[in-house]
Amino acid sequence: MKILYLETSSKNCSVAVSDNEKLLCICEEVSENYKQSESLHTYVEWALEGAGISLKEIEAVSLGKGPGSYTGLRIGAASAKGFCYGLKVPFIAVNSLESMIEPFLGQNYELIVPLIDARRMEVYTAIYDGSTGKELSATEAKILDENSFEEFKDKKVVFVGDGAKKAKDILNLPNADFREDIYPSAQYLIKKTLEKIEKKEFEDMAYFEPFYLKDFHGVKKKGS
């Protein structure tokens, strides 16, 4: 089954194509300027070309549904819906935090904690078992302080994501590792997507909304 994956929830605009669990091509770029609107469809073209298949051969589309950038999520969701509607294929959505833990599973960490920067001292986070990837604590918006995650001070834990930088500066966890260079990536949506396809856990295109976690607050221009 040939599947197209879109992950636009962060600074990493990421597109992948797989044939079942085999990754055929990944095309992604981390940009401080959030380039989803100008890059996403180009990356889809490049990923399909790299995979050696045409768009009409795609049999399902999977989206990293957030949490993350409001605008990035809107762009990703609109594109995924458009592809599914045009191709008449099923639509799958996966929590973007789950794509961040995949590279760290089985690496001798007891816990993996993704942290997505949500401005100021706030992060989007959840807690996962380091060997099985099982979700131990549901996704939430959390304000960091020096007492955050102190219950893990005797555990081997890794914090991953662009929110790990501010966590490292404030948390009192000498045994923890921090990897701030990790972003959600389309290539790590494959496993969870195939599980959802197996269970026929498809999204309703008409009613699907990305996983925002918070309401959008726009910035008002001066003098308007």
From TrEMBL:
Any one cellular-component term (Gene Ontology): cytosol
Chain ranges of the Gcp-like domain: 37-199
Cross-referenced CDD domains: ASKHA_NBD_TsaB
Alphabetized NCBIfam families for the sequence: T6A_YeaZ (TIGR03725)
Source organism of this protein record: Chryseobacterium contaminans
GO-annotated biological processes: tRNA threonylcarbamoyladenosine modification
Name of the protein described by the UniProt record: tRNA N6-adenosine(37)-N6-threonylcarbamoyltransferase complex dimerization subunit TsaB
Domain of life assignment: Bacteria
Matches recorded under Pfam families: TsaD
